[in-house]
Amino acid sequence: MKAMAKVRIVPLGGTNHVTRNMFVYEYWPDQGEIERIVVDCGIGFPEEEMLGVDLVLPDVSYLQGKEKTLIGAIFTHGHDDHIGAIPYIFPKLFSNLRALPLFASRLTAGLIESTVKDFGLNLNINVTEDNTLYKLGHFSFELVPVTHSVPDTKHVLIYTPIGTFYHGSDFKFDFTPVDGKAADLQKMALAGKKGILCLLSDCLRVEKEGFTPSERLIEETFEKEINNCQGKFIVTTISSNIHRIQQAVNVAARHHRQVVFLGRSIEENLKVAQRLGFFKIPQNVYLKKQKINTIADHKLCLIVAGSQGQEDSALVKIANNIHERVKIKPGDKVIFSVDPIPGNENAFYQTIDKLSKLGAIVSYSDILEDLHVSGHASSGELKIFLSLLKPRYLVPIGGNFRHMNHFKNLSLNLGFNKESTLILRDGQIIAFDETGKVHFEEILDLKTVIVDGLGIGDVGRIVLNDRKKMSEEGIVVVVIPLKRDKKRLLAEPEIISRGFVFMRMAKDLIQEAKMIVRKILERRKNLEDWQEIKNEIEKELQLFFFKETQREPMILAVIININFPKI
Amino acid sequence: MKAMAKVRIVPLGGTNHVTRNMFVYEYWPDQGEIERIVVDCGIGFPEEEMLGVDLVLPDVSYLQGKEKTLIGAIFTHGHDDHIGAIPYIFPKLFSNLRALPLFASRLTAGLIESTVKDFGLNLNINVTEDNTLYKLGHFSFELVPVTHSVPDTKHVLIYTPIGTFYHGSDFKFDFTPVDGKAADLQKMALAGKKGILCLLSDCLRVEKEGFTPSERLIEETFEKEINNCQGKFIVTTISSNIHRIQQAVNVAARHHRQVVFLGRSIEENLKVAQRLGFFKIPQNVYLKKQKINTIADHKLCLIVAGSQGQEDSALVKIANNIHERVKIKPGDKVIFSVDPIPGNENAFYQTIDKLSKLGAIVSYSDILEDLHVSGHASSGELKIFLSLLKPRYLVPIGGNFRHMNHFKNLSLNLGFNKESTLILRDGQIIAFDETGKVHFEEILDLKTVIVDGLGIGDVGRIVLNDRKKMSEEGIVVVVIPLKRDKKRLLAEPEIISRGFVFMRMAKDLIQEAKMIVRKILERRKNLEDWQEIKNEIEKELQLFFFKETQREPMILAVIININFPKI
Fold this sequence. Notes:
Two copies of one chain form a homodimer.
Chain A: E1 6-11, E2 23-28, E3 35-39, E4 55-57, E5 70-74, H1 80-83, H2 86-93, E6 101-104, H3 106-116, E7 124-127, E8 134-136, E9 139-145, E10 154-159, E11 164-168, H4 185-194, E12 198-202, H5 217-227, E13 233-236, H6 242-254, E14 258-262, H7 264-275, E15 300-304, H8 314-319, E16 333-336, H9 345-357, E17 361-363, H10 379-389, E18 393-397, H11 401-413, E19 428-433, E20 438-443, E21 449-452, E22 455-456, H12 461-473, E23 475-483, E24 488-489, E25 494-498, H13 507-523, H14 530-549, E26 554-562
Parallel strand pairs in A: 3-5, 5-6, 6-7, 11-12, 12-18, 13-15, 13-16, 14-15, 16-17, 23-26
Antiparallel strand pairs in A: 1-2, 1-19, 2-3, 4-21, 8-9, 9-10, 10-11, 19-20, 21-22, 23-24, 23-25
Helix pairs in contact in A: 3-7, 4-10, 5-6, 13-14
């Protein structure tokens, strides 16, 4: 029997995460070579329990050894969770990076270049135009303009011999966007009319009723807030939200304030955006940060990175009153044009509290409306989106399980049948055959690939579990010097702890623990089986410390073997 | 010159925390003994950076040695942040616990007894009546009924020779409370008319416009939700919210479902509340948890602890599908009648996600309104409160700095002058003299007293910093066995790490580190100054590991001195 051709979608960043987006579309012809294209390659953010971890990456082990079948990569927009993993993943996957054509809109391409700059990668990036068909083997694709919280965001229409796929990652419908470039609803309708086999759709904000407000709303808020500001006008927001920053600049200029940018991420992003025409600031409005103290406070507007209260950010330095150039004075106003990321509320509100203590008037979403709007589609927009595209199959992406569930409910309300919406388990590969029917194929066992310092993937579950244990109760190290030949103790066992109890206050406790170790060693007839001795010591000390302190530090017994004659 | 009499307020739990409430009111007569009464004695919850810490306590070192001057303690309500520190603090402060009279309303007294039960304390608790004057030395006081998220909550009117104080801790104005016992606004007005020198007022929810909705609202929501529930109806909420649980029971009973309680905190609280008449459940509605599997799912209502997604809670066991009695089936419904505590969103939403994956229909605030109401007064209620009491001075309590700031703004809008509202730094003692004038006296240097396991106060900044460091990058232990007399290395240095790198993958790294240690030891002419050697080894390894891995584990060098002849 002749094999049928098929198209497979492989979600390498998983399917129920908001971040680390990476998808592979595969064309399996009935005969001949498989062709693969990549859509996005983003980092993830570590979960709370991943102590000390910097970043998380998609797991690309599936692609190892398949380099030759990869014929292109497309990027939807310039957020880190869509482009940030390129410098970690691409050099390991490709022996010749120039051989792989990358496709991205003008700003996205600029932000990719800025992202890989420090890594010294030589990429082959092609800047795309809208409404232009690009061919990659049996695939062809075009980019559909949409709106999001970074300019120049696109969706991807992917044409294959099997049918058309619509890759609808992060978006909203902003009908009055700051740059006037709204989403192309007509294009969507036409594509829908021609027939979409499968839509992959952002579902993160499906729980919200109605429509996500327009970004343009924010300028009015800034206008109101700057009006009664006597001192410095300070705005903090997400560094990649170019339009938000543009609006702050517009308002500052109208009020004859000069604008200073503080924080590496904001400065870098604006440099790219300005060079490519996505951000404009009049010469007489821009002020170098070195000149900040030459201008009166009521003539200043500062745009500052660190809106989530990140350690070491410019804003947190200001809040801690240790910034080299900026001191808060009573009358200064700080606008948080952002919501706290779930789980990050403590750092966020601590920063607000510190700024308030220094005398700043602080505006944030709890006390003032219209300070922030989301970049994701609410249920109203999703209803329009689905009605324009009318795909045969729907796959919610970029959300957690509960969002995917709600997306399915929304599709049922719109008249899609139960089988249309595919809620995929993490790593689930799906395939569409020549009749357009979907098949659930293998489930990849995706690992959480961790970046910690320079190491990629060398921190695993064991290391993380150790960190967690030590973070909660500390560590107790027991050193046991043994004479190698005679198998006996050579000196008093040594006990040192860190993060457990304050040693000087716990002398008795440590003395007792030493006694326990001595007794174990005396009880044993021979001291040959070190592993067994170690285990016994660790177990008994664990029990002893728990009984005495109700704490369970990590116990680490180290046996040192000393061989007299040799040294 | 004769000293003037005065009343001092000493905030031992600090002034800009939401939790660990503990205030001391002091009467300093112009001659004779000082008299002190305590209001509340609550625990605090550890901040994010306090790794592994169980609880935080008020710092009572100010009271040490002042036992004889303490003549009574009053408790406003039964939440842990108002009564939970009693078992930790009172036994250390008082040689004879029975000598100190404690005053609390009926339910609060019951919850105090339940709190101290495991500690075996023999307290002298007096159950108070409303509108009854109690005398304590020169003080007298009466309790004013208010509404909050635990029944039988009170404010305290404290009469002193200097003037009247109103201790207005946690409250809201629920005009239609579930138990019909509304706040006594007339009492407040009369007290205000007679003259309040200083009001201490809850300010936590001052940022919210309008009025906090009535608790009664929730019953309608439960009613709507149970109506279309095919399987088990599962409600989770804060364990002390007796009225919330009462409403769930009422709805379950109307729908002929039997109610099972799961989780120690809920079971304990309800036992107390039921015994004292604050909670009612018909015999034929209550079901023992052991019988849960004898009843059909659509005849069951489970009230489950763990609404914040706490580890080891009944709800999280259910979500992880490891609960000994309860398995989620499609059609079961879980109602989160609670909002996530700021900073706790991850655990909260993970639990929702896991329950959804098991097939439960999950309702929570993001997708359904009126699932939770706060126990704290919004700005509308605070305006009424201040207008009834019209105090000369106002002190916002139970909030962070930003809430105190807003409270001051609110008071200005009501016509109070700028000097009326006192925003106190942490530990700031204030005194009122015979003319009623306020004085800022000393500022206590309040420590964060940490409870970790059985230890109180033995975990300090050093231990916590060590935990943080190890949590992020792990630890590397270097053991150096030295010959005591000859001052030379007796065996190969041993290097062990935990939470840093996976040892088996990092053999080369460890070998290189050993070389570095050997070189340092060889370079040194004598090995006498162990401390210096340790420091040098720790410093060099720090640099080496950072260069190689961009990580900074804690380095712990242990020198073992071995003395041949003696052993």
